[in-house]
Amino acid sequence: MGRTAPTYHQALEERMKRWDEFARLLTSPEERAAFEMVRTGARRYVAQATYVGSPDLLESILLSVLTDLAVRIRAEPSTATSRR
User: Fold this and answer.
1) Is the pLDDT confidence value at 28 over 60?
2) What residue numbers bound the domain in which 67 lies?
3) pLDDT at res. 83
């Protein structure tokens, strides 16, 4: 039997396509790079989001993006500490 609902990965990619117009309207290279980082973060935790199986796609996307950003922040050397 065929699937009646898209997989999490398929639904995520559909959502990402809807975000293309927003990405196109970003004006600076820094903004575009930051937006690509958000997209990467959303894709980084596909397996975890699939396993949880939340009916709310946006919740899974936001948790993935926030987790990715938190990991990146912790991995960066602190600029406040290096200025002292």
Assistant:
1) yes
2) 29-73
3) 54
